[in-house]
Each structure stands twice: as C-alpha cells, then as structure tokens.
Design goal:
This protein is mainly α and 162 residues long. It has one domain (5-122): Tetratricopeptide repeat domain (Serine Threonine Protein Phosphatase 5, Tetratricopeptide repeat, Alpha Horseshoe), CATH 1.25.40. It has helices at residues 5-21, 26-38, 42-52, 58-73, 79-92, 96-109, 114-161. The protein is elongated, with a radius of gyration of 23 Å. Residues 7-19 have a biased composition (Basic and acidic residues). Residues 1-23 are annotated as: Disordered.
Length: 162
C-alpha cells in the first residue's frame, strides 16, 4: 500500500480517532468479565479480550494481548479477529513494531483486510514520528551540550585572565 506521507498521516489520524471513540465503557467490561468467568467458552473469552483491546488502560491492553494470544495458540477459529485485537492493543500501548508485525502477518494472508491495512500504515507513521522526535531531542540535547561547553570555556577563560 503506497501512499503519500500526507495520506499516511491522515490514515493514522483517522484510526486514532476511531480507536479513541471505541473505548469500552467500564460497565461493558465488567459484564463481559463476569460472563467470561462464569463460562469457559472461548467465544466469551474472545469477546472480553477484544473489548479490552480497545481500552485506555495499559494493564487491560496487556491482558487483552495475553488472552488473545492464548486463544490463537489454542486454535480458536477466529484467528484474524484475535490478531486484529492484539494489533490494536499493541498499537494503543505504543508498541508500534509489534503492531506492525501483527498487521503484516494479517495482510500476508488477507491483503484486503482494511483495518489491518490501517493499523499497518498507522504503526509505520507512528514509528517514523517517534524516530523524528528522538532525532530532534538528540539535536536539541547536542546543541544544549555545545552551548554549555562554550559557556564553560568562556567562563573558564574569563577566570584565567583575572
């Protein structure tokens, strides 16, 4: 999926908005957790884990990844849906490399999956933005260090003249 940088940023922005609007209510999570506990059904576990994969709580997101990965390993029939949930949770945890990897795995088997495509593009854009931020911070830090060194030399040189 080749798109311009602006289109990629728009995809990321749109996905971020969708995910922020789909954060589950605590009451929903409580009822799904209760159903999951009372039933040993993989479907109940999936529903709970998938709802958690859109949470705003890092611990709930991590737990959703654990549940979804265990469903995948157990041969749960809705593998792609489990992977989408896991990808969303990794993305929301800012684990962009993992989200990208899961999205790529989905797209290899199902290239028409629109949500996996959006998650893939958004993860790549987020990784690039993080890298740009790190480079800027290093540049700012380097500039500050050079300025501090220059000031120290200036002050040190001024002290020797006295």
């Amino acid at each position: 999926m080749r798109t311009s940088k602006q289109q990629q940023r728009e995809i990321k922005s749109s996905l971020d908005e969708k995910l922020s609007l789909s954060t589950p209510q605590p009451s929903l999570l409580e009822s799904l957790a209760s159903e999951c506990t009372n039933s040993s059904s993989p479907d109940a576990t999936f529903q709970y884990a998938f709802a958690l994969s859109k949470s705003s709580s890092p611990s709930e997101l991590s737990y959703s990844i654990t549940l979804l990965d265990s469903l995948l390993k157990s041969g749960y029939p809705h593998q792609i849906d489990c992977m989408i949930g896991s990808c969303q949770a990794h993305y929301l945890l800012k684990q962009y490399a993992e989200a990208r990897s899961v999205a790529e795995a989905i797209l290899r088997n199902n290239p028409q999956n629109a949500l996996a495509g959006e998650l893939h593009v958004a993860s790549m854009v987020a990784m690039e933005e993080d890298e740009e931020r790190k480079v800027r911070n290093v540049a700012i830090g380097g500039t500050a260090a050079v300025a501090a060194l220059g000031l120290a030399l200036l002050l040190g040189g001024a002290g020797k003249k006295r």
